[in-house]
Specification:
Order of helices and strands of chain A: HHHHHHHEEHHHEHEEEEEEEEEHEHH
Number of strands of chain B: 16
Distance between the termini of chain B: 129 Å
Oligomer: heterodimer
Radius of gyration of chain B: 30 Å
Largest sheet of chain A: 7 strands, mixed
Helix content of chain A: 10-25%
Strand content of chain A: 15-25%
Radius of gyration of chain A: 23 Å
Strand content of chain B: 15-25%
Largest sheet of chain B: 5 strands, antiparallel
Number of helices of chain A: 14
Distance between the termini of chain A: 66 Å
Strand order of the largest sheet of chain B: 5-6-7-8-9
Largest interface: A-B, 66 and 70 residues
Shape of chain A: globular
Helix content of chain B: 25-40%
Structural class of chain A: alpha+beta
Chain lengths: 417, 585
């Protein structure tokens, strides 16, 4: 019974799916358990980070925020609905340039043509990248790193003197591309459901790269993920300040209209030009209603050369990234600061460090020093906190850190020179 | 009765009017102040400018001009100047006492800005002469419309000592005024005369030294940020700079600031700042102070200048045996030697600090690091602004800071990204190894009537970033960090003494007109990609790169100077290469 209800809900959300389900019943049912449909990872990581313990909800069961806001946890659902969840299967696109896609099944798959023949099955990368971009794995595969928001970073200008056209929602720096991308591979070449595997579960490199040379892949590195060594750069985005403002105070954002949010860019551009007072409203991307208040955001800084390591639940060492270290502000329509730069909940920082696999793979691995000298690298300059809250693992233990500088390492390293 | 009353009132009014008439037409009785000038008869309530210029001795006219014998306003005020500290007036008034100083300041680089102008022309290919002394006063009114000159006029020339303060829309960031640019600490308000001082507060220096290499900011641990204004506080941006347009975040400040709250002038001598009377080409020629002038001092008896300066300062004790700068032999009257104990006195309040001399530990004395400037190791960070995308609209209009009016042509600046950590190193103007940062990486687009022209002039500049820490950068941060070596950010390795490097940044794909990574000063083969602004300054060459990176083979195990191999490194190496000591023992 419950299952029928969920299928019904699914069909309501995605009218188009009705057509598809007639033939693709199995796939459609499978899809509703997928993370692409429920978005439960993104949702629960964020809710946990903002102080909701053991959160376990999905896009479909995500509640509305309370009216009485006392702490960040009371506001997180509003934040998710209006700032994060622009990219679920129920919406087309959020109005950002280069982000146009259909919804439902067609978000990824192509339609049959009129003759009833299938279009090529392979999902083009461009479709994946309409959601998987900016700070996240996706555009990094193409070597793209998002530029800073301030208008002074929007260079070089075009021939007519106008700002460059954005792709995937923001301007990008071009960094080293993934070797698989250079060789012409697209997302679904690895992320597929061939041989009965779950296409959403992470692909292991070993599925393709069997029989690694023992010379280069020593026993002592057996508990390290491939990407920890073979990724060239990674995404470290420090301190994300987010601010919901229900007053119509737009003027100060005039240099910061580009905030990785297509709706906001359009809204601010209009509001800054308008002589009339425009009400601050922003859509709830789930029920698609315009609601009071605008969510603004800004970073402390972002880096591609930083490297922090952690260990996952199985003891495998991977790269850690901060996503994100939140600082939350909320000002109501009367101008009262309900939350003023709140960065903790019950003394725990509103952060979620995540172990991940940067899609910036190179043939030659990092030099040993990039990991083994990791502690000394920063020279005491950084004032930002060390990771405290790791979502899917832990930071390196003291013992592990000590091992990085062990005599054994030094002897082995010296042999390499 | 009524009639009488009216007559009486009329008579009284008549008397009052005639008395008033008589009073106002009679010359005001001259009060007995005739010293030092008649100005005092009206302005006797004006406060003193400072303790060195008491009005009882100087009066008004000796500085402000006018007719000091006149007793009425019109005659007395004939020819007076409001701000005699402007250099053109100072050379009439101040010069009577401060003879050499006014001449020196007029020739100094803080007035001429010749360093900026000529490096700019050189880097943009408009001049081959790096050592010209043409400055802001020389180009006023000329018809040269070259791009470099236009850029200088519109973006750089706001900052010279004799700039006109009145031309600034935002008085919070007004600069100029001649001597008062630095020496004035408060403005005139009614009968309170502007206060002048020889204890120049850092804030005055910061009026100018907050852009370009941003020394004044870095010294205080302020790094100009990407402009996010985060974290938001009370619903507003936080960490705003005084111009209200730029933002910062806090990084470790210079140890001289943190531990002793020293002002700029605690190190920078009057000759170093106001000039030595010569026209110089570059900052380092005009600069007087060196780290070792204090930390490895040469003591001599205090001279008359030292006594005068200490006397003016009022806080620092009377100097007897003091340190002198090596370059201009300037007295450092606040670095005093007393019974073999060296003390530093803060100029702002005379507070005494123990001065730590440079140790003679191997890290300071050993041969292998003798080419290092102090700043190479002791500077913890440097503001590095990569990619200065300059846009010029020929048909636009923008304020010209030299002519002080809006003229044709408009510049706008864009940038690629900012960094502060692990500054690049290279060979500096003093032929020593020091930190480098973009200075400047110009990628220009010129929008003319019907066509668009482009050029680029990529340069790196070496300077002491003023972010000194007691703790130095780690061995590996210089010897095995590609960003520090000038290769740019990426992956560095070494095999058989051959450097392997793959950079992260792809300049071509990012829309730049060159193929090397924007943060690369030099290739791994030692080919220098970007120019510098000095003949002597350059990136590391191939041999240097190889030897620095190869040294990491030792550093891997021997990663601190306490290690016994550094006690006599030459000998250690001999023993090692002759097989008498083995590695990894």
């Amino acid at each position: 019974m419950l299952r029928l209800v969920t299928i019904f809900l699914f069909l309501i959300t995605f009218i188009e799916a009705q057509d598809c389900i007639q033939c693709h019943k199995k796939e459609t049912i499978k899809c509703q358990n997928s993370n692409h449909y429920t978005l439960k990872n993104a949702i629960n990581i964020t809710r946990n980070a903002w102080g909701i313990k053991d959160s376990n909800v999905t896009l479909q069961s995500l509640p509305y925020s309370k009216f009485d806001i006392k702490k960040p946890a009371d506001l997180v659902d509003d934040f998710l609905r209006r700032k994060c969840l622009k990219c679920h299967l129920g919406v087309k696109n959020s109005g950002e340039k280069g982000m146009k896609r259909e919804k439902s099944c067609l978000a990824c798959h192509s339609k049959h043509n009129n003759k009833g023949k299938c279009q090529p099955k392979k999902i083009p990368m461009k479709k994946c990248l309409t959601c998987h971009n900016k700070e996240f794995v996706g555009t990094d595969y193409m070597g793209l790193f998002p530029k800073d928001y301030h208008h002074s970073f929007r260079a070089p200008l075009k021939k007519d003197g106008s700002y460059p056209t954005q792709k995937y929602g923001i301007d990008y720096h071009n960094l080293n591309q993934d070797i698989h991308y250079k060789l012409g591979m697209s997302c679904v070449d690895c992320h597929n459901n061939k041989n009965g595997k779950n296409w959403e579960k992470s692909v292991t490199c070993k599925e393709c790269h069997k029989g690694l040379s023992k010379n280069n892949h020593k026993e002592y590195h057996s508990n390290i993920s491939c990407s920890a060594c073979h990724s060239s750069w990674s995404m470290s985005s420090y301190e994300l300040s987010v601010f919901r403002d229900d007053t119509g105070d737009y003027k100060k954002w005039k240099n910061l209209v580009l905030q990785e949010d297509g709706y906001l860019t359009k809204f601010l551009t209009k509001a800054l030009k308008s002589k009339k007072k425009i009400k601050p409203v922003m859509p709830d991307w789930i029920d698609m209603k315009l609601k009071k208040g605008i969510w603004y955001s800004g970073w402390r800084y972002r880096r591609w050369e930083d490297l922090v390591l952690g260990t996952d639940e199985k003891g495998i060492i991977k790269i850690l990234r901060p996503m994100f270290q939140y600082r939350v502000s909320y000002r109501d329509e009367n101008g009262t600061m309900i939350l003023d730069d709140v960065a903790t909940s019950d003394g725990v920082p509103l952060e979620a460090w995540t172990l991940y696999s940067p899609h910036t793979i190179t043939k030659k691995s990092k030099s040993c020093e990039r990991c083994h000298e990791i502690n000394n690298k920063k020279g005491g300059v950084y004032s930002l906190k060390k990771p405290e809250r790791v979502v899917n693992g832990s930071i390196l233990t003291k013992q592990q850190l000590k091992k990085l500088k062990s005599d054994y390492y030094k002897i082995e390293r010296y042999k390499e020179f | 009765m009524k009639y009488k009353n009216i007559l009486f009132i009329a008579a009284i009014i008549g008397i009052v009017i005639s008395l008033f008439y008589i009073y106002s037409n009679t010359p005001r009785t001259v009060e007995k102040i005739t010293k030092p000038d008649q100005c005092m008869s009206c302005h006797s309530d004006m406060s003193d400018i400072d303790h060195a210029h008491p009005k009882e001795i100087f009066g008004c006219a000796s500085c402000h001009g006018g007719n000091k014998f006149a007793t009425d306003k019109t005659n007395a005020h004939k020819g007076i100047v409001l701000n005699p500290a402007r250099l053109e007036h100072a050379s009439i008034f101040c010069i009577k006492c401060h003879k050499d100083i006014v001449k020196r300041v007029s020739k100094s680089m803080m007035q001429s800005q010749s360093g900026i102008l000529n490096v700019l022309k050189y880097q943009w290919g408009e001049s081959k002469d790096l050592n010209s002394t043409i400055g802001v006063d020389d180009i006023r009114g000329d018809s040269n419309t070259s791009l470099a000159q236009s850029h200088f006029r519109k973006l750089c020339a706001a900052c010279h000592v004799n700039q006109d303060e009145k031309v600034f829309d935002n008085q919070n960031i007004a600069r100029g005024g001649g001597c008062s640019d630095c020496h004035r600490v408060s403005k005139t308000n009614k009968n309170k005369h502007a206060v002048f001082t020889s204890k120049i507060p850092t804030q005055n220096c910061l009026k100018c030294h907050n852009r370009s290499n941003r020394i004044g900011l870095s010294y205080q641990g302020i790094f100009e940020s990407e402009g996010y204004g985060t974290p938001y506080k009370y619903g507003e941006f936080s960490h705003k700079m005084s111009d209200g347009k730029r933002f910062y975040y806090e990084l470790p400040d210079d140890i001289h600031h943190r531990d002793a709250n020293m002002s700029c002038i605690d190190c920078h001598t009057e000759k170093g700042v106001m000039g030595d009377g010569e026209k110089h080409h570059h900052m380092e020629e005009a600069e007087d102070i060196k780290c070792k002038d204090c930390h490895q001092p040469q003591f001599k008896k205090a001279n008359t200048l030292a006594e005068t300066l200490a006397d003016l300062n009022e806080k620092v004790p009377e100097p007897k045996v003091i340190a002198y700068t090596r370059k201009f032999n300037s007295p450092l009257y606040n670095v005093q030697n007393d019974k073999n104990k060296t003390s530093f006195y803060r100029k702002s309040d005379g507070k005494k600090f123990d001065l730590k001399k440079m140790s003679d530990k191997p890290y300071h004395t050993s041969d292998m690091h003798k080419r290092l400037d102090c700043s190479a190791c002791h500077s913890s960070w440097a503001p590095s602004c990569y990619g200065c995308h300059e846009v010029y609209f020929e048909n636009g209009k923008q304020f010209d800071w030299v002519e002080k009016k809006a003229t044709k042509g408009q510049w706008q600046e864009f940038r690629s990204f900012l960094r502060f950590e692990s500054p690049s190193l290279g060979i500096g103007y003093n032929k020593k190894i020091m930190p480098f940062a973009p200075g400047c990486q110009v990628i220009a687009t010129i929008y003319k009537d019907k066509k668009v022209e482009k050029f680029h002039a990529m340069a790196m500049a070496g300077w002491d970033p003023h972010t000194t820490q007691k703790e130095v950068r780690t061995c590996v941060d210089c010897h095995f960090n590609p960003a520090s070596l000038g290769l740019g950010r990426g992956n560095l390795d070494i095999k058989n003494d051959k450097i392997l490097f793959s950079p992260f940044y792809d300049s071509n794909k990012s829309g730049m007109p060159f193929s090397y990574p924007i943060d690369a000063f030099v290739s791994k083969e030692g080919k220098q990609f970007q120019t510098t602004s000095r003949k002597e300054a350059r990136s590391f060459n191939k041999d240097e790169l190889t030897s620095i990176v190869s040294a990491y083979k030792c550093i891997l195990c021997h990663d601190n100077y306490g290690d016994k191999i550094y006690k006599n490194f030459t000998k250690s190496k001999e023993l090692f290469y002759s097989g008498k000591t083995k590695c990894l023992d």
